[in-house]
Amino acid sequence: MASSASLTRSKLPITGRIVMFFIRHVQHAMASLGELWRSPMSSVMTMAVLGVSLSLPAALQVMVKNAETITQSWDSAAQISLFIDGDRSEQSIQSLIARVKVYPEIDDVRYISKEQALAEFRKLSGFGDALDYLNENPLPAVVMVFPTERYSTPQGARELLAKLEREPEVSFGRLDIEWLERLQALVHVLERTVIAIGALLVLAVVLIIGNTIRLAIMNRRSEIEVMKLVGATEAFIQRPFLYTGIWYGVVGGILAWLIINILVWYLDGALTHLLGLYGSDIHMKGLSFSELLKMMIAASFLGWLGSYVSVRHHLRAIEPS
User: Fold this and answer.
1) Measuring CA to CA, which residue among 84, 173, 97 is closest to residue 137?
2) What is the number of other CB atoms lying within 10 angstroms of the CB of residue 273?
3) Taking a C-beta distance cutoff of 8 angstroms, is the pair 180, 72 a contact?
């Protein structure tokens, strides 16, 4: 039967063979889907396990994506405080501001005079009456510098601070950016965690699908022996099992996408309220439609890989007696 089929294929033109190739694959894909439909409970349970397994690294990836969004919004608010020498005149300070404004690394400059600094300190400190006893204003004038986006990173801001401190009117500069470095380090650790846990869960998905396909092969052992007796090729026999693994992966990826977006919708309100207390209006971002396609492709590849490893190992052990 197999030899006559191959002989028939050899007589077909190249276009006919290409069409037959795709027709065979579509037939096996639909047949494997029918096999899953005939055992809905076990199929749904396996797909649910795969969906939950894939949702864990996807959830960590969503956390990393939202953390990066938050840190980027805080990066743009980075600022440098330049404290002016106390003996500098107002004209000298305005000259400094004019020079600093033309720096290509600087987006905006704001000046706080000694009087404004004292008034602000009086308002915030609660020592208003005690400050009336001072003979002179001890607070220096401050020039607030807001870097461009490129120089809002810790390294770029430090380079800009070193450049600004070389100005003769500047006593010293202050860059309070250690908290941002800690946050970025935390995000970096989270990214590494995503990769490590993702690799483990990818291995778990491959093993789950491989074991499921092994059980399917054992259940159809007699059928496989008959197919080998009549001369069916290994590619013909293993193709339905490979498509079964692909279907498991596709549906598992869709379930993982749904789980993550439902969790994001559930947590978004609480996180928005928390960030609102810090003056931030940021909403959690879930997985987009393009990320759904990526998850389906990645999950289908994992399904194919688990099926291929299982099929190559177990089909060779089955020989007609």
Assistant:
1) 84
2) 9
3) no
The β-bridge relationship of strands 106-112 and 142-147 is: antiparallel
Q: Are strands 170-174 and 106-112 parallel, antiparallel or unpaired?
A: unpaired
Name the DSSP class of 150.
Answer: G
208, two tokens: 């789950």
Per-residue model confidence as pLDDT tens digits over 20-73: 767 777 777 777 777 777 777 878 888 888 888 888 888 877 887 777 776 665
- Name the phi and psi angles at 68, rounded to 5: -65, -35
- Note the pLDDT tens digit of each residue in 79-97: 888 888 877 888 888 888 8
Whole-number Cα distances in Å, 21 to 9, 24, 32, 153, 210: 10, 5, 17, 55, 26
Tokens of 309: 């490893």
* Count of all residues that appear for the chain in the document: 321
**56 CB contacts (<8 Å, ≥6 apart)?**
197, 201
Question: Looking at residues 277-293, what average pLDDT do you find?
Answer: 74
> Whole-model pTM above 0.70?
no
Q: In the Cβ-directed half-sphere of 270, how many Cα atoms lie within 13 Å?
A: 5
CB-based contact 295:62 (threshold 8 Å): no
